[in-house]
Amino acid sequence: TGLTALDAKENDFDLMGVQIEALKQGKAVYKPIYNHDTGNKDPPELLQPNKVMVFEGLHPIYDEKARSQLDLAIYIDIVNEVKFAWKVQRDVAERGWTEEQVREDIEKRLPDFSAYVDPQKANADVVLRYEPSDQGLPYLKVKLIQKKGGNFPMITLKKDITLSGSKPGATLKMYDDDWFGNAVTVVEMDGEIDMDNMEEQLKEIE
């Protein structure tokens, strides 16, 4: 079709919504399998219902019908600077790409990503967002963005925490914010836990 896998028009959301609903009712379904290597569909896979099921991919909460069947909607939000650093690390080492090839590959998909994938985070109950640390990459600032009144069991901090003992250390804090018009509570960690003293540091967080 000339469209990328990111384009919503390449997905059968009506079928997706019906099949999620059927699985929640305890019925097995035949799930379509798209082959990324050939660009065609492989024979469908028989999917049996279970008490806990995870639906993951590019568009799990894009369509309202499919989204309404989910008990909990989670979005992993990786900002472009982190995404590029991670993709360079993988593709240069594993595929022999240059940094410029990696950048071109990301930029080629960016319009469809911005149109069809990224907007889903506005409808998520919780967003796990990766940003560069205030101390710069490769360290990260990770935000757990929890929609108030959503289905995610709220995680909170009693106080701001500073963890030392290794470089760069880590700071944890909690605050309220607005996320696409939704009231949210954010738990943020900037930096890195001391892996040699992780058990003790986790006790401070608990």
Outline the fold blueprint.
Elements: H1 13-24, E1 29-34, E2 41-47, H2 64-68, E3 74-78, H3 80-95, H4 99-117, E4 126-132, E5 140-147, E6 161-163, E7 170-179, E8 182-191, H5 198-205
Parallel strand pairs: 3-4
Antiparallel strand pairs: 1-2, 4-5, 5-8, 6-7, 7-8
Helix pairs in contact: 3-4
The gyration radius over C-alpha positions equals 20 Å
Morphology: globular
- Compute the separation of the termini in Å: 51 Å
| Total helical elements | 5
Summarize the main sheet: 6 strands, mixed
Question: What does it look like?
Answer:
The protein is of the alpha+beta class. It contains 5 helices and 8 strands. The protein has helices at residues 13-24, 64-68, 80-95, 99-117, 198-205; strands spanning 29-34, 41-47, 74-78, 126-132, 140-147, 161-163, 170-179, 182-191. A 6-stranded mixed beta sheet has the order 3-4-5-8-7-6. It has a two-stranded antiparallel ribbon with strand order 1-2. It starts with 12 loop residues before the first helix and ends with a helix.
For this entry, give a set of tags:
single chain; 206 residues; alpha+beta; six-stranded mixed sheet; two-stranded antiparallel ribbon; 5 helices
Compact summary:
This protein is of the alpha+beta class and 206 residues long.
